[in-house]
## 1
Amino acid sequence: MKRRSFVLKSVLASLFVGSTWSFSKDKIPTHNWDGYDFGSPPLITDRLNQGPFNNYGPGANAPGADVIMTTTPSKKPVRNFGMGLVTYICDEVGPPNVNGEKLRDSIEKLCRWPLGDVLYIRVDWRDIQKESGKLEFPEHWDLTFEMAKKYGKRVAFRIQLMSPEIEKQSMPDFLIDKVPLVKLGTTNEIGIPNKVHFAPRYDHPEFMNAFKEMDDLLAAKYNGHELVEYVDSCMYGFWGEGHSWPFEGNSFPDYYTAEKTFIEIFEHQVGNWSKTPLVTNTQPDYSEVGNSEVLDRTIRSYNWLRTDTIFIENSQIDALSNRPPWIGATIEQGLNTNQKNNKFIFEGITKNENIIAHIRDVSPTYFSLWNWHNISMENLLEYYEENPEHLDQLASKIGYRVRPSWIWHFENEGYPGIILGLVNDGLSGVPGALRISISDSENTFENYGSLDPGYPLPGKVRQSLFMLPKGTAWEGLKIKAEIEVKGVRYPVRWACSQKLNNDGSLTLKRNL
């Protein structure tokens, strides 16, 4: 099986593939992502004063500001919403299947592993729906949510509308005789060897109505759910990644119908998942189904990105590494078992070490802990226990890791003020807006507001001002952070080595 081998060939293949359809005038062409106008960032209603601040002269707005406290980076993993390592519980071939071990035990071992922050499930549509009007989840789905709650983690998931890994269609049986199927062909390059692959007519009314009902039911249960981190958006083709490589063309009569269909599918999900981030694959439009338009709409609706390997086309690397700073990105790349990893060493660098180094290069917010099609805690530990430093280093840098590095105090016309010099020791911007509050120990007052979405950026200091009531003593004040994503706020634990309160906040005290 060569699930992602197509990325090594598709660029060359696309040069020789003829198109039989006419392109929509609205098709978004390939473009550089750096500096591209995706529209304004998410709206914030309580923007903090972020400078400039002047200490001297008649125009000083922070006269005589003095550094009263500093923080230094934490070297430990920090678990916050919108970032982390993702432990795979189920992929396209199913949940762990360990000889002599109960499914519950296999899943619990994966879920309790401290290195993982988020638990991930990938299932086919048929796995969660047997009949119209209701959802029925498989055992491993329910176990994952049970364990997420038990171990203080969250869940992400994808519902596949088409898969080459199963003999049947991904859509439920009650749709099989209602939705036309288009034969793609047979190949051993992908999925089950010698399987005859068919693609559904996604644009058929029976398919579209049933999909919308399924997504409505799913969102009614999980949109804004306390345990759900993100949901993969549904795309065309194999695994829902946006392609049916190595087959040319698609199941639609023309490009316009394909693009229109997947815009409709995506926009329906955007309407349903109003509180939970959707995550769209950066897959180039090999199968000509409107991926570029869906990807553009993903950014403009403040949803996130994903990719399903790291050694991929340059357009995907450009999108991931130059995305707007308020957009999250999850990278899926299977790790080799230790035995296999030790067979692939070039100039002293193993395959897994090479993967992890390149994960860091695109500044992601998430990365997969996953042995491709061979999920088990034993396989992960076999590699990790012999080579802990690479994943440990990634865990201590992935995502955003924010802290108030400098804390200044001043008085202006009798009112005390605090300026925070906020830094980000992580790899990515904040995938939303960082909201900060300052309060006293008795909670007699609270001053709060938001930074511009995405800030602070790695390698830069973002300052913010808080004016306090007259007579307020700065020592003992509490600084707390949250991240706001799609209007929902989640607590943020400061990523500093200084002692924090149980809720992740920092109490001010002189240490300089």
Note: The two ends are 59 Å apart (CA to CA).
## 2
Amino acid sequence: MPSVEQSKDIIQRTLKFSSAPETEVHVGGGRFSLTRFANNEIHQNVEERNLEISVRVVLEDKRTARATTNRQDDAGLKKVVEQAIAAAKISKPSKALPMLEGGKEQISRHVDEKTEAFGAMDRAKAVVDIIAACKKAGLTAAGQLTTKRGSIGNYGDMGTYAIGNSKGLFRFHDETSTDFSLTVMDENSSGWSSSFGSRISDLDLAALTERAIEKCKASRNPEPVKPGGWTVILEPAAVASLVWFLSGGFAGRSYHSGNSWSSGFLGKSVTGPKFELLSDPYDPRNIGRPFDGEGLKTQRLSLIEKGILKSLTYSRLTASKQGTKATGHGPRLPSSWAGGPSSLIVGGGKKSVEEMIKSTERGILVTRFWYNRLVEPRRVVVTGMTRDGTFLVEKGKVTKGIRNLRYNQSVLEAFKNIVELSAPIRSEGMIVPAMKLNNFNFSSVTKF
């Protein structure tokens, strides 16, 4: 990711080539490094470095368009501006608002030098230790360890981490992050663990490896149980899978168009009182970009409070149409996406997973879900399967591994049946607790 001064230089050099009344420049990119392993061997060790410069222009008649390049030289910047102007001339007039005025610069940095310096050999050495522990247990390991700097992500996806425009606005954000996922397999069982952080020191790889090994061993020779309504203890990764399906419902544009599960429920109960959801990019556990695609500062929002839908996210355009204030959750324009919350945090409680198990007469402990799909948008009915450690709980103890189950469940209804919550942790891109729920619907048993 370019530095503050390098980003300013790119933006200023780009702006000087534009004759449009309004011009906006986005800069993104950085470094993404990955070590992937399977069958107890490292099979992929890659690193990508890239830069994206994206230019939007608005002409006198409000025609607007965007063009993108990864060239930083003057010839490349001049060409991308010309492409944006040419595309705008053949576009329909837009309803976009004038670009934001300048004012005070907004700069945020959350870069860990050790994570930045954690290279291919460091990742390889860490993975070798993980594989050795799995081999010692007679098991097979597969997974990945990544480090990232800037806005570049998996498979080359790049977002915006610097914005400047012809009205003097400048925004900048930079961060490091790391991600680890491990699946441990035996003949008829598997175990899994995962962790994410802004620093490589956030990952306790030895403990995560031992956790996955223990789950794999404990779930050997799984037995089937009857589907139906069960008391479940969902570990954080499983909870996060369900919460993601709610996230799109908070966009103001979708709400007011009647296309969202949330439409008509602002100020009303949508889940049980034990469920709370925040959007907060300033929480140190969950640092995110503190401005939206137009450069507007992102607001901290209480989305669901004690089960009641309290807030929606608004882009500048939607807010102006609805006579309310923008929240800094708008997309990069032009866009067909309605926007939505970022940096999600689910409220937690004081119970541990072990305490939830002890208080359960008969239930199912779920490590995670996979292959999750939306079935019925209006009620947020989702289907998917358990994976990598599903266990029967009887009389306060985990007694055996069970075959994986397919679930078919309204997320809103599930969160009406919360019994207990743990302290939230970082999992699957958000801060989320484990949950004990009643009457969670499993529709069938799988063959493995």
Note: The longest strand covers residues 41-58.
## 3
Amino acid sequence: MLKIKGIEKKCWRKMGLGLSALVLIAAIFAGGFYLGQGGRSHLSQGNRILAYSDEAANGGKVSAADQLDFNLYWEVWDSLKTNYVDKNKVTDKDLFYGSLKGLAESVGDPYTVFMTPKESQQFADDLAGTFEGIGAEVGMRNDITTIISPLDDMPAQKAGIRSGDKVYAVDGVSTIGLTVSEVVSKIRGPKDTKVTLTIIRGKEKPRDIVITRSIIIVKSVKTEMRADGIYVVRVSNFNNDTEELFNKAVKDILLKNPKGLILDLRNNPGGYLETSVNMASEWVSEGPIVAEQFNNNRRNEYPSTGSGRLKNIPTVVLVNQGSASASEILAGALRDYKKATIVGETTYGKGSVQSLSDLSGGAAIKVTIAKWLTPAGDFINEKGLTPNIEVKLTTEDADKGLDPQFNKALEILKKVKK
């Protein structure tokens, strides 16, 4: 989930899947790059301020090991500018943004990320549901770029990309050691152009999959009223349009009074925290939906908004390894309050919250600020949510167009007497 500073809107305000940025030396470079002695002097002044803060926090004492000489930064800068074999291909902006990316990566958290202006705009496009690319969400699993969710009817899915595929190369260039943002920037590109992903699926041999990029316009909520009286709501993301579309779906559900409801969160990588809370509140009329645990042991709970319009409709929630973040919050709340039966496979396991801040020049930073827990206190990070009923969707099933998870949901709801 994501929280956006200065924009108290539904912007992944707190986000759970995937993606982040950073600020530290931004003030130093405000108004342009300060190179030469003037810039170094400015940086030194900033360092003294930080050191003073550290001293105050430690009773006025700073150990020798904790004292930093920021001249080292400029030594590295000068060495690269002078000695790098292809120095003419590297700009000051490359060095500057690269240093900020490294600063964010130094905390060792894959979701704390600095985004350049271009990456920040791409991220905003993602939230708006419109961009050019292949139509798939990617994340980092065991230091390997992994497909979290190919979006329905998008180029990636049509080409055969599946949730859980490991991406080892893009157009023949290895992804090992690259951040998620760097891999995404390589995968994206203008519509009608092609990109080749080298993927490994399970224990199979590597394969190349060629995908033709397109304009990706995604409505995050799709609905279907089946002839057998079961209403299906598929939620692909928790984006800008999700809450409005879901509210329309709820009104339609109440009007048609179905026998049961299937909420399909498979391959949903997450999004706005507040949206997941408001959606869960359609089943849970009171009590906390999710709790955040911050680094100072402060805890913050998000209570139900109290609507509860769907609380009496038998519900099955479908999840898989591509269900992450806000998806897990929604599924976890319905599981803990026994408002739904969870069917499918163990979810992705993203139990952290990111804050998104806009920076100078159009850049942005996502910083992990908290861990989240289900209403019952379950911390799902890296372990995921275990469904009430485990049903696997195998490669053979997918190849044959079979969906045993969805069929199990139908079986459960058709047994319900209403």
Note: The CA atoms of residues 260 and 414 lie 8 Å apart.
